[in-house]
Amino acid sequence: MRVTIIGTGYVGLVSGACLADLGHHVVCLDTDENKITKLKDGIMPIYEPGLEELVKRNAQAGRLTFTTSFADGLPGAEVISIAVGTPSAADGSVDMRYMDSAAKMIGQNLTGYAVIANKSTVPVGTAERVTSIIRVLTRSEFDVVSNPEFLREGHAIFDFLKPARIVIGSDSARATDVMRGLYAHIDCPKLCMQTRSAELTKYASNAFLATKISFINEVAHLCEMVGADADAVALGMGSDPRIGKEFLRPGPGWGGSCFPKDVKAFLKLGEAHNHPMPVTNAALAMNKLARSRVVERLENELDGLAGKCIGILGVAFKGNTDDTRESPAIDIIRHCVERGAKVTVFDPQARAVLELHGFDVPHAASVYAAAQDAAAIIIATEWEEFRTLDLEKLKQAMTGALILDARNLLDRDQAEKHGFKYLRVGRG
Ligand SMILES: NC(=O)c1ccc[n+]([C@@H]2O[C@H](COP(=O)([O-])OP(=O)(O)OC[C@H]3O[C@@H](n4cnc5c(N)ncnc54)[C@H](O)[C@@H]3O)[C@@H](O)[C@H]2O)c1
Q1: Which DSSP category does 249 fall into?
Q2: Are residues 277 and 416 in the same domain?
Q3: Domain residues for 133?
Q4: Are residues 185 and 246 located together in one domain of the fold?
Q5: Is 205 near ligand 1, meaning CB less than 6 Å away?
């Protein structure tokens, strides 16, 4: 099948490379010339395990090409997948400018029947919106379907090729058949539903996962007060298959490029329909609390933070990425700085704290340099290397002996054996 993917970011590039690997002929189209030039030269614009090899193999086989030209990239495509960014606007609604612009370019360059599949996460009603933009610009037949993507950065190739389900929202039988053909070689349930249901499925999924994390954090805070252990409680709860073990790890809250913007967009949708959405609102409020609670515990332990040196380990929103968007670590840094602490950070990959977030905090060259003269350290991101800290070396670097482990990575006994006072989320 001939496929064109508009937007060559995390979702578009991974989808394009995987579809090519399944035997389709794929054109990846992006307006970012720099990105396309790099890809033509075999240089990956993003870090994703296994992606470089997959892209090179399929480019060499002639199944995967790159372009910035809609006039070259669209003619002949049976499926045109849109995977452009849909960031939050200032008021929390979705900024649709990239989606609208892609739709316009499709309308101007369509030469025959194609299924236009929205892979971007978009508000309910977007398929109709895209249809009306295209319809006034072309005489060609087309259908717009919703085909939301559920892949996770860091596991994107596996998630694309072995998904739990593929959601196809289509109000046209012809388009549904084309989409089934596109995914014929992926062995998973294909859930066909109306377009609006598919659009809402993506937001509802992300809001539910965020709520699950907020719930376990609420439980964890209670555990700290009543003398229970949140990890044990989570295991006890999660062993019930109706609950499940995933997304029950207490910590400093959820962040990243998807959950915060999608939860906000979900709430905006409710607001537009005068639907109060108390559950999701509570999940959002709990997420703010989870971040500030880390710093409040530190403040209580140290009897105020003014003038105290604090080492913060981790800036990225999760391990294995340099992505700091909506990272809990960023809020933890902000709270510490606002309370007058002298903060030094270390992250193995995420270094653009000052440039992106405006904090004038030094970025140390190692964990131990970040801990130098610190009264306490906070573990804010679950990097694998933080699990195996040299606690003796850490102790020697610090003037104090407090570890606040917001990711529950360390072993309490080991930390205490080295003379640390050790606090983790969900243990008093
Ligand atoms: N990143 C994830 O983990 C993930 C997972 C599931 C769904 N999503 C959703 O998928 C969508 C894309 O996310 P992403 O992370 O891949 O974004 P991204 O920012 O990595 O990539 C978007 C790309 O679209 C390009 N673009 C913008 N406007 C364009 C246009 N008019 N024509 C051609 N290209 C254009 C940009 O240059 C950029 O390369 C979003 O709606 C996001 O919410 C993301």
Answers
A1: -
A2: yes
A3: 2-195
A4: no
A5: no
